[in-house]
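Ops channel
N.P.: pipeline sanity check, posting one input/output pair.
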């Protein structure tokens, strides 16, 4: 009986969101269609972690490029390459390369390699606030969509997804955890259909002679 009640509540909640947030769904669909129309995407981003209680507040910058199933992103000297089969994490400070067949979609937090598509499933959503950036000569409208995890046991409380409504592109992702940690990924530069080096997603072991190869599976 308890399971039936929980299922009913879940179903009604899903139905309620789908009825109220048609505009939010249409906006997210436009973003997905737009992103999937590109041959490749190159992003420079800022990654900020903030927790007032723990006195944590720092920002770092990185870059991310993706084409088909392949991607590569860099931050804090760490390079991660996914070639569609293997995931390579290269740490020059440790002189170590970790290699696994781990699917990057299994990660639970929002990382640059997931931020383009994570919202497509697993969330209820509703229209959020609107923010204008720029000045009197140039103003950009950012429409936020609030994403609430369907999984009640998720570590994430909610996510505010900021969308540039002129180009239907993601502007930033602000994740609020249940421990009140706020993680923000803000896009600084967004380029698409650029000319890429064909070896960009290829791990060249010859460049890392002397590194410890940590093969997980």
């Amino acid at each position: 009986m308890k399971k039936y009640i929980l299922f009913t509540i879940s179903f009604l909640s899903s139905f309620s969101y789908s009825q109220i947030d048609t505009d939010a769904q249409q906006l997210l669909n436009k973003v997905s269609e737009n992103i999937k129309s590109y041959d490749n995407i190159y992003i420079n981003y800022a990654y900020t972690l903030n927790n007032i209680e723990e006195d944590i507040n720092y920002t770092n910058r990185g870059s991310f490029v993706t084409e088909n199933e392949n991607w590569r992103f860099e931050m804090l000297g760490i390079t991660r390459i996914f070639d569609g089969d293997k995931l390579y994490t290269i740490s020059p400070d440790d002189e170590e390369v970790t290699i696994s067949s781990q699917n990057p979609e299994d990660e639970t937090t929002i990382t640059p390699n997931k931020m383009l598509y994570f919202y497509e499933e697993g969330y209820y959503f509703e229209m959020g606030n609107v923010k204008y950036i720029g000045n009197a000569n140039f103003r950009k409208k950012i429409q936020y969509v609030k994403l609430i995890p369907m999984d009640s046991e998720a570590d994430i409380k909610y996510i505010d997804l900021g969308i540039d409504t002129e180009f239907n592109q993601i502007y930033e992702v602000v994740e609020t955890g249940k421990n009140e940690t706020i993680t923000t990924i803000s896009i600084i530069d967004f380029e698409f259909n650029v000319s890429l080096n064909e070896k960009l997603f290829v791990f060249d072991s010859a460049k890392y002679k002397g590194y410890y190869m940590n093969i997980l599976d």
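N.P.: looks fine end to end. The longest helix spans residues 2-20.
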